[in-house]
Each structure stands twice: as structure tokens, then as C-alpha cells.
Amino acid sequence: MKKAAVIGDPISHSLSPAIFNLLKQYGGVPDFLYEAIHVPALELGSFLERARKDFIGVNVTLPHKEKVLDYVDDLSPEVARIGAANVIRFADGKAKAHNTDVGAILRTLDTHDVVLAGADVLLFGAGGAAKAACEAFGMMGARSVAIVNRDGMKAEAMGAAFVRHFPQTDFFSWQDGGAKKRSFTLVVNATSVGMDGSPIIWPSPFELLDTCTFSFAFDLIYRPAMTTFLKRSAARGATTIGGLEMLIDQAMATWSVWLNDLVDPEKVKRDLRRELTTLLEKEGTDNLFLCGFMGAGKSSVGKIVAEKTGRSFFDIDQQVQRRTGRTVGEIFQAFGEPTFREIETELLNEASHRSHQVIALGGGTLLRQENLEVVLRAGTLVYLNASKEHLAARLAQAKTARPLLADGSDTEALFRSREPAYLRAPVHVVTDGLTPREVAETLIQQLSLEKKS
Ligand code: NDP
User: Which of 34, 131, 322, 418 has its CA at a distance of 20 to 30 angstroms from the CA of residue 90?
Assistant: First the structure.
């Protein structure tokens, strides 16, 4: 058995196992086995030591693309130049690091007719993928690359290193978003911000885009397919490029490093793109969304339904707290309701790409038409319909946790403004007089959901 894997932290978002399972059919290696393995930073060295004996190679994803160089015996010339690798090949007890991201970025930009000779680029990120991007921009003869990164020192150091490699390109750290340049041919996201499951960052580093003009936007992230970065860029009139093509390209190049050259690679690429696009489109169609006024029992009922039907449970309000590190009330207080709604929309979009979940919406999530559309497309919307008296009794105990009630605002008016959106749900469950468990049972029966055995 020829074993390989992709390693990273997190890793559940990875599409690489799906790609390599398809590739093995084209590559004629039926005894090839590929898996995704969660490897935290502290275990990287010990994992690679073990992998040398059992694996033909590993793909390396975030956050290990740079650190992994400490654990190999040999570097390809490209890796030695840029200091980041996404492929390790094990042979004769030795580990050699390669980088197939650079070629994949070059070919992806070429496919979209992005010409960078003499052009200006804005790059978000200074990690392993950003380094591969800088190498590609230098090779394409870009005039300048403005780098924006959370850790400004890393942006400075990366810029300085690439100016040495490509003296004709002005790589510079653009931390203050100052007036140096506002017009770009290409903007690129090589951070993990916006990736499925990543923390929600507020204010978004991509707000900078709203003050720039640019023709193309390339997000290396492939899940979700349409990221906030790409949406924001599309709204500015740019042509958008997602990360899927690059992912497929670097995987095919990885296959060649480990095993053999694929016959008719253009056809393989086309087939893979079709198969994976279909796979991504199928994601997120069998979800159950629970809506209703605050106090209707969305979280408690949702948890029970998820447990009984073997689905995962996703509570938008809880996720806001987990992923921003602030409570809903704190966000309202510090940034106001519009900011909270933005974060909520981002989380909903992300969750809607996954399948087999029960998702408890916030009381006001459906106020945005775009959210209602997402929910109606990605599953079944259920309204937990509780009478005003019933809600009033429950809310009387929970004023502090509900920011829109904390200032003594008119609950009745709030309910009236939200009810039309709840009534768009095709399924209604009247909850008065029922315990959360009874509501859950009613819902399961009403929708004929299969129970976990
Ligand atoms: P690294 O861990 O090496 O770098 C992560 C980058 O994201 C750094 O610039 C980091 O900033 C930034 N970042 C992380 N968290 C935050 C945050 N909370 N706020 C602001 N910035 C943040 O990862 P990689 O370079 O390997 O990967 C980056 C992204 O590119 C990932 O989403 C990955 O999936 C994608 N990718 C896609 C590929 C494809 O084939 N389509 C190939 C390679 C990568 P800082 O330096 O300050 O920590």
C-alpha cells in the first residue's frame, strides 16, 4: 500500500482526500491510500519521524509550511529560496521538501489571463502560502507587491527577503494602509481569514479593499467557494478567482513528485474541477434551520433534535461568542448592531456550506433578505412559534443576556418587525405548553426525520 496524507491544524476543511481519491484512478495506482491527519504544531516533529517509515509522502498545510523545513533532510531549489514547502517526499529513509504551490499560482493566474509584468499587486498574508505567492509575482515581473499582515514584522521580513530575490519588484509592507498606492491589477488573500471554521476577525482586514481599485481578486481559500474576500471584491467590480483551481493544480503536481506524470493533465484538471465543483455544490442542502423570537427555545430544541437524529448542532449566537471572543451583548455595546449582523451573516454563510446540521438562528438573523435566501436554499426552515404570553414569561428571566431587551425597548414592536420573516418558514411548530423535548419530538415526527439508532 502506498500511503500519503495531508497534515495540518485545522484539517477538517481539507478537500485533498477527495482530490487524491480521484487522482488515483487517473494515475493508475490502485493501492494508493490518502487521508487527512490532524497534526498540531507540537506533534509535527514526532509525526514526521513516524511518517518516514510508513508514507511515500505528505502534503503540508497551515500552519506548518515553514516549520516543516526543520524536520527534512533536503530542500528543492524553490523551497530553499522561499522558505516554505507544501510537499514532502520520503524515499530511502530521507525526507525532501518541495513546493508545488508556486507553479499552481502561476498556472491559475495564467488561466485567467492575469498579466503581472509591470503591474501592482496587493497581498494579504505573510505565511507559507504568501511566500509562494511572492515567488510567483516576482517570476511574473510584477512592479510592486504591497503586503498587509496581522504581524507587521513578518510582512517586513518577507518583503525584504523577496526584494533580494527579485530586485526589479518593490515588495513592501503596507501596514498602515497609508496613501502609497490605491490601484492594483490584482489583490490576493493568502491568509486563513474567511476559511471554513476560522475565527471571525473584526474589523475585517479586507475593509481596505473598499478604498482601492483593482481588476482581479484571487482568494487561495477554496472552502467556502465564495468567501467574504471574494464577495467584497466582486462588489468592487473585480473578476474573482477562488482557490479550487490552485488546489487541484498543486495536487496534480504533488502526484508527479511522489509517483508519476499524469497522462493528459488538462483533461484530468477539467474532470477534477467538474467533480469537485459538484461535490461542493451538494454540500449544505439537508440542514435544519430553527427560527423564532428570542426565548422560543431554538437552542434547547436544536440540541435535542441534533442529538436524536445524529446531526451536528450549530448555534449562531454561541458561535459568534466562540469565534470572536466576545459575547453578543459586548459586540452590540462596542460596535453596534450592524457589526453584529455582519458577523452573523458571515457565520451563517459558512455553516450553510456544510451538511447534516441543526442550526439555531439568532432571533434577528432573518431580518436580512440575503440570510433568508441562504437558509431557504441550504435546508429546511422551521419556525418555533410561541405565543406572546409564553415568550414574555421566558424573557422576563433573561433580560441581561438579550441586548435588544436590555435597554427596555419595546418587545412587542420587535416581535412584529420580525414575525413576517419567521412566517416565510415552510414548517411551523407551535411550542406553547410543550417542553423542549416534546417540541423536538413533534418536529422530528412532522419532518419524518430519521432517528439515530
Ligand atoms: P500560514 O499559517 O502559514 O499563514 C497564515 C496567514 O494567515 C498568516 O499571514 C497569518 O498572519 C494570517 N492569519 C491567520 N489568522 C489570522 C487572524 N486571526 N487575523 C489576521 N490574519 C490571520 O498558512 P498558509 O500560508 O499555509 O495558508 C493560508 C491560507 O491559504 C489558508 O487558508 C490555506 O487553506 C490557503 N491555501 C490554499 C491553497 C490552495 O491550493 N488553494 C494552497 C495553500 C494555502 P500572521 O502572520 O500575523 O500570523
Answer: 131
